[in-house]
Amino acid sequence: MVLSAFLAVTLSFFSLYLVRGDPAEAALSQSAASADVLDRRQDALGLNLPVSVQYGRYLGRLAGGDLGISWFGGQPVSLLIGQQVGATLTLALSSMFVAIIVGVTLGFLAAVGRGSWLSHISRVLTGASLALPVIFTGVILIWLFSIVLGWLPATGQGGFRHLILPALVIGLSVGGGISRQ
Question: What residues have CB less than 8 Å from 142, skipping those under 6 apart?
Answer without folding.
Answer: 154, 165
